[in-house]
Amino acid sequence: MAITTGTLPRTLRGGVDAVNGRHHQLGLRVFIFIVVAHWAEHLVQAYQIYVMGWPIPEARGVLGVPFPWLVTSEWMHYGYALVMMAGLFLLRPGFTGRSGTWWKVSLGVQVWHHLEHLLLLVQVLAGAHLLGKAAPASLIQLIIPRVELHLFYNTLVTIPMVVAMYLHTRGKRPDNAAARCACAPKD
């Protein structure tokens, strides 16, 4: 099913049209800044664990060192998953052809990632953990540790997103023929 701005309230329609038209390049740049900042957090945390030998509770990434409550807050993790899903959803109409297919793959993986974070947040709010675990656990986390799982999820979301952006900004016709933005070459 195609996502169209016609289904949005009139107040949002103009903004979504603009971010997928004349402001698509700016929207992508803001979005990629958020993605890179999040990757930095995960990579620093992995470095702290695997290179520096820090225990997992002390390996808090960049922002978690001065603000330790951020890492332990399921709200913060859920909020990021929601922002990622919203960004992928809102920028999706700007991608056409093969780039649109890759962008939708990234969005699909992020929908699952978001549901996993929602499950974690619900456990925290309810005060009951999945299968009686000592801490909140997502479904896949039952078999893959959380640090590694989130590196894996972020990789699964990022790879098709990067392929989509490459095809969108470097691809040729007919893939970008229907694109309404300046970041997609038409020739």
Write the SSE topology.
Elements: H1 10-19, H2 24-50, H3 68-72, H4 74-91, H5 97-126, H6 146-170
Helix pairs in contact: 2-4, 2-6, 4-5, 5-6
Uncertain parts: none
Q: Report the order of strands and helices.
A: HHHHHH
Structurally, how many domains make up the residues? 1
Describe the largest sheet. Answer: none
Oligomer: single chain
Mean pLDDT: 87
β-sheet strand percentage: under 5%
N-to-C span:
28 Å
What share of the residues lie within helices?
A: 55-70%
Number of helices: 6
Shape: elongated
Category by helix and strand content = mainly alpha
Number of distinct beta strands: 0
What's the Cα radius of gyration?
A: 18 Å
Mind explaining what this structure looks like?
This protein has 187 residues and is mainly α. The protein has one domain (12-170). Helix content is 61%, strand content 0%. The protein is built from six helices and no strands. The protein has helices spanning 10-19, 24-50, 68-72, 74-91, 97-126, 146-170. Helix 2 (24-50) packs antiparallel against helix 4 (74-91), helix 2 runs antiparallel to helix 6 (146-170) and helix 4 (74-91) packs antiparallel against helix 5. The chain is elongated and about 55 Å long. The protein starts with 9 loop residues before the first helix and ends in a 17-residue tail after the last helix. The relative contact order is 0.14.
